[in-house]
Known about the structure:
Chain A is an alpha+beta fold.
Amino acid sequence: MTGGAGTYVYAVTRPLPDGLPAGLCGIHGGPLRALAVDDLACVVSSVELDQFAAEPFRRNLEDLRWLERVAREHDAVVQALSAVTTTVPLRLGAVYSDDQSAQHRVRGLREPALATLETLDGREEWGVKIYAVPRRAEPPAGDEQRPASGLDYLRRRREQLERTTLDARGLADDAEEVFAALSALAVQGRRHRPQDPALSGVKHPMLVNAAFLVPRDERARFQQAVTALSAERPAGAMVATGPWPAYSFATLDDG
Amino acid sequence: MTGIAPRNESDGLADVLERVLDKGLVIAGDIQVNLLDIELLTIKIRLLVASVDKAREMGIDWWEHDPSLSSSERNLVEENERLRRRLGELEATPEAERS
């Protein structure tokens, strides 16, 4: 692979008269630069093409340790920018042959980028996951006794199965209600694909993996609602994280 | 604060990957893989993160639809070729007899 450096773009912002946050570094410690693009700016750093050109990048993405480091470095830059200015995060991996090429591409996205900046102004993202944590089931009285007959056993078994099904349906309906309740408090609610237990690290199935765009000055109100909803449910049924940069609300495609 | 976790260094990797790979403004770089490749990679990375060993028992089956990796599809292709050869042989037989 040819050596040399490419320009990695993290995010699009409005012009940054005060410059970039002090001490903030990019991927692999690379110094950040803000490139002016008319009435916008894009925040970039140089990356080595022997790691970030299409072919090595593709290979590196499948190396979880490499990917984790780069993903966290990318996220750290976007997070720090979001703390000081409205930031439209880019998806990981926008690499250009040079600064001019990156600026040219961002110039081409001026209209949607400006519209997205307006949507994100003064707002932040909160993640809420809802898991199917069963409520403690109370066995009906007399269930401890041995079944009186085979028929009795079958009846009890059927009732037990019906309760389980109802419970699962109830939990799913309940998760939808939580999503609706929090959506009503947010500017927008979006759903990601629920994560598998191996990804979430939680043994209970994830029912809803949601992101909410919340006005920053209504953060407390949103958090109170999360806390209240969470208190009404079994421990661990609701987990909220945030604030995140508004990743989930910056997509131009339908992603 | 029940149920609310502040963001920190140890944020779930899955949460970070979900956002930086899947979300964010999509602008493909000029020397970068294109968008479709990114989508595909995202799915593959999901699987990778979930660990390939466990994927099948968890019911992740995207590779069933990826001809480059699916053994069932490979088998299907082989089966197809075998049948086609067999059909060719059968069709060729009368011709051979005719000649």
